[in-house]
Amino acid sequence: MATIAFIGLGHMGGPMAINLVKAGHKVHAFDLVDELVQQVVAEGAHPAADAVDAVTDAEFVISMLPAGKHVEALYVTGDRPLFDVVKKSALIIDSSTIDAATAQRVTAIAAERGLNFIDAPVSGGVGGAIAGMLAFMVGADDAQFAQAKPILECMGRNILHAGGHGAGQIAKACNNLLLGVLMTGTCEALNLGVKNGLAPAVLSEIMKKSSGNNWALQLYNPYPGVMEHVPASKEYQGGFMVDLMFKDLGLAMELSQQSASPVPMGSAARALFSLHKAKGNGTLDFSSVMRLYQDQ
User: Fold this and answer.
1) Number of domains forming the structure of the chain
2) What is the secondary structure of 131-152 as a DSSP string?
3) How much is the pLDDT for 295?
């Protein structure tokens, strides 16, 4: 059993922390929203007064925050940066989805102080977090990856070593660029078929059995009523917000500019999500981009 500090208990972080508790670890949980802390405490975690309190005596520190500026503030630039108080022997795992440059910069500062910091963003959505079936994309050296893997396996099914520090964030940006393209393309095809008289469930099954088969058709159909228990059949509530997809596609755009990599389809997908977001749909699941095609 390890002593783990978990900071950031939102839609993803809360279920992840709970799965660590269920695996038998001692979890000290903190979030700026006390209600989120109490939800995890109800499952057996220990409440922390603040982030500094959470990391006291922690063998592992896991953070799940909205953006790079929050990660940098927590560990380096804030009023009480955790790099000043965390144990030298602790492994710090940041599972936030942030820009690779910030991840690499924070890693370098950690190394200068004799600390171990790795990036390990996740894929799998809220459902994957609850079920403990996330995919972790880890940027770390071999020894750090080996140390982190048993802890990450309590929260995920696929623990993937992407490469050195920052590689996890690059892999996540590439994955979510493809996810954004895939979802908008799936919505486009389904809407086209329905507008021309096909039943969405029938068309979905045909494409699943044909060369258009993809993850959205298999597990996350964006058309309401086709698949139970997905956001599309719950008024697009829950899941992965449009705001977050827009943010992640922005991270991919930054990478493309830095490496002069053409991303015309990713750019088109981001423009669609931008338009959908501008219509007030930022907090809906990203599969709600179907409504954009339906002109709702």
Assistant:
1) 2
2) HT-EEEEEE--HHHHHHHHHHH
3) 86
What is the 8-class DSSP label of residue 241? B
Task: Output the domain CATH number for residue 118.
Answer: 3.40.50.720
Q: Domain check: are 255 and 277 in the same one?
A: yes
What are the residue ranges in the chain where pLDDT is below 50? none
> What is the pTM assigned to this prediction?
0.93
**Are 157 and 234 in a shared domain?**
no
Judgement on whether residues 201 and 115 belong to the same structural domain of the protein: no
Domain that holds residue 99: 3-163
User: What is the CATH classification number for the domain harbouring 203?
Assistant: 1.10.1040.10
Q: In which residue are the tokens 């109800």 written?
A: 42
Helix (H) or strand (E) holding 208: helix 200-208
Query: Which residues are marked as active site?
Result: 172
Nearest to 292 by CA among 283, 107, 226, 280: 280
At 20 the three-state DSSP class reads: helix
What pLDDT is recorded for position 239? 87
* Residues making up the chain, counted from first to last: 296
Identify the CA nearest to 116 among candidates 156, 148, 162, 77: 148
- DSSP lists the bridge partners of residue 137 as 160
Structure tokens, 4 = 């783990």
- Do 252 and 153 have their domain in common? no
Can you give 268-295 as a three-state secondary structure string? HHHHHHHHHHHHHHCCCEHHHHHHHHCC
The pLDDT value given to residue 125: 86
Our measurement of the distance from residue 31's CA atom to the centroid of its chain's CA atoms, rounded to an integer in Å, reads 17
**How far is Cα 294 from Cα 296, in angstroms, rounded to an integer?**
6
Q: Are residues 155 and 275 in the same domain?
A: no
Asked if 246 and 273 count as a contact pair (C-beta separation under 8 A), the reply is yes
**3-state helix/strand/coil string of 25-89:** CEEEEECCCHHHHHHHHCCCCEECCCHHHHHCCCCEEEECCCCHHHHHHHHHHCCCCHHHCCCCC
